[in-house]
Amino acid sequence: MFHALRAPAPVPSRRAFLAGAATVGGALVVGFHLDLPGTKARAAGAPDFSKVPTQPNAFVRIAPDDSVTVLIKHLDMGQGNTTGLATIVAEELDADWSQMRAAFAPADASLYANLAFGPIQGTGGSTAVANSWIQLRKAGAAARAMLVAAAAAEWTVPAGEITVEKGVLRHARTGRESRFGPFAAAAAAQPVPENPRLKEPGEWRLIGTTLPRLDSEAKTTGRAVYALDVRRPNQLTAVVARAPRFGATLRSVDDAAARKVRGVVDVVRIPSGVAVVARDTWSAMKGREALVLAWDEAGADRRSSDAQLAAYKALAAKPGLVASRQGDAAAGIKNAAKVLEAEFSFPFLAHAPMEPLNATIEKSGDGYLIHAGSQFQTIEQAVAAQILGTTPDRIRINTLWAGGSFGRRATSSADYIAEAAAVLKATGEKNPIHLVWTREDDITGGYYRPAAYHRIRAGLDAQGGITGWEHSIVGKSILIGTPMEAMMVKNGVDATTVEGAADTPYALPVYRFEVHNVRDAVPVLWWRSVGHSHTAQAMEVFIDEIAHAAGRDPVEYRLSLLQKAPRLSAALRLAADKAGWAGRQAKPGQGLGVAAHESFGSYVAMVADVTAEAGKVTVNRIVAAVDVGVAVNPDVIRAQVEGAVGFALSAVLRNRITFKDGAVQETNFDAYEPTRMSEMPVVEVHIVPSTAAPTGIGEPGVPVLAPAISNAIFAATGQRLRSLPLDLAALRGV
Questions:
Q1: C-alpha closest to that of 208 among 600, 644, 636
Q2: Rounded-to-integer distance, Cα 563 and Cα 506, Å
Q3: CA–CA distance, 387 with 424 (Å, rounded to integer)
């Protein structure tokens, strides 16, 4: 059964919310704001959020009707953080799960900053639970203490004699009891405790259990409101004609025919192209088709994919920027008993979320209101404010459900929000503007996971030990030239290009990792798991090759190099055990492959069971073991790993963005095909028990799938398929 409605509703401004919460029916509103700890990661791979000052704000609302609403500062694009974050509050509050609700927080970085990012409200990097863990535990514990204090005053009994269980306050000696609602107003008047007591793990009754998701009923009944559902009074729809090649600029436009299309209201020029504004989406699209446009392509990149890859290979042959090094890798390889070499290539990839990009913007009082599946609220406020000639505090954002993102809605340029604001301005701000990108718009002219090329050389001694490792990575930086460059680019090295390789947990005695930053016009952006999406494939396939060259078992060999990485080792052992690795009996054309990788502070190992036949690979089963610290909601964790397998499988088997004469060839799901249900393997997810602070799971399941499958194909066929998507045609001789 589904629980009652708990879908986040449109949220008013912060000031209006706080005023309403404090006065309507005497609600209790309490929360905590942490001082930003900076972004420096600990050795475990996650920021340290353990020091939490108790500075109240509105994170938890307990209403007279007994409902408990948690304001969620992160976008939920399907990953289930509304459920996970509400679970944390409910645990410390001792609420009953049936009381819990969730609503998206207003855009206000002073209250709702992502503590892993700095003073920015935004979602990404699998940080939602990790950065909110202590913050929301304190909010829930403080609210509980304030309710107890209010009840103690009303009942004239010591607070220490009052118990709270499943949303009920009880005093055993007098037999008094009450639910939260009647004490909401009195509790709001209580002082906020400076350091409320947090539960010990042995006291938890919700954390670590499977709870019904808060969004399930609203989404399955169609009541959940996505950005694409927004309809404002007198709303107009806009679509934009953009350059057919990256780097081209608009020379001229003839809009006479477009203006004659029924339903078209206006045609305006904006920085990214020409916007057709109409009374509905169909009319806007037909109007766009009628435009006569001329483009200046003098600055356009007209290369095809083969030429792009050739340029990458040429760069890899030259010295690059040093990302990390230890000892003399060249000497270690020169004196080796055996030398292995490999190259890996990776294409551009589109995000292709199921809900295309869209946003609605309107004039509202002395400011503006944006309705969107907002992922980087702070940046979107700043960009819209600059375009509209106002200040960010006058840009309110109504964050709504998003039908996927995989990183696409989190751009440092706030591109689609910027377009919506530009169209509103160009049309005189008279009507709300709903900007819509079609699927073709985004796949042919959006942002992409950067293409990449890896060249690796390693030397082995007579016993199979690694004597030296040289690794060159070529790709376009996501961050160079953006506001985030100062934070995440050091000496020209973009951390997102080399993550998962240059910081490998494997104990390599001597190594040298280099990077080459490609400069071209193709716009790039983080894609689910970012750099790990290609570095894990290169590292894990090459480690597998080394293990076989050394005559060692791939699991045992990895463990020998992970003695200083106990959590990754534990995940690897668990996955191998649950997959029956030790006693495997290979059938002709069938094989098991293994991979293990750390990303975003989480540890994931996978074993893939595949069948390889002439030109075809069937993935039968995936066994995954994950260590994400405390498992707040195990079912959500399993769902995210299952979803990661489905998401990544299409990139493993076929998906790529290709260029011909500078133009993207794929336009929709017919050529950029998602994983079909019939292709999904059985997925088993095993969670490593842990008492460490929770980390994320939205992305870490993606990187390990490709190398596990690649290594399984080798086990089944004896042939190495290194690059992605896998060249299945090479298996025709199997």
A1: 636
A2: 8
A3: 10
Assigned token pair, 560: 């020998």
- Residue 524 DSSP code: B
Q: Whole-angstrom distance between the N-terminal and C-terminal Cα of the chain? A: 48
Tokens describing residue 641: 């790993």
Which string of b and e fits 699-731 if b means at least 16 CB within 10 Å?
bbbbbbbbbbbbbbbbbbbeebbbbbbbebeeb
Range list of H helices, 184-302? 184-188, 216-221, 256-259, 281-290
Of 207, 212, 125, give the one whose Cα is nearest residue 698: 125
* Residue 314 neighbours by CB under 8 Å, 6+ apart: none
Per-residue pLDDT at 587? 82
CA atoms of 463 and 356, how far apart (whole Å)? 54
3-state secondary structure of 592: strand
Whether 679 and 573 have beta carbons less than 8 Å apart is answered as no
Angle 601-114-84 (CA atoms, 0-180°, nearest 5)? 65
Residues of the chain with pLDDT under 50: 1-26, 31-46, 52-57
List, in order, residues 6 or more apart from 655 with CB less than 8 Å away.
Answer: 347, 349, 350, 672, 673, 725
Residue found under tokens 């398929």: 721
Cα 403 to Cα 36, 352, 438, distances in angstroms: 30, 10, 14
Question: Scanning the structure block, which residue is given the tokens 């293994």?
Answer: 594
Instruction: Please give the radius of gyration of the chain, using alpha carbons only, rounded to the nearest integer.
Output: 27
Question: How is residue 54 written in tokens?
Answer: 């108790």
User: What is the pLDDT at residue 48?
Assistant: 60
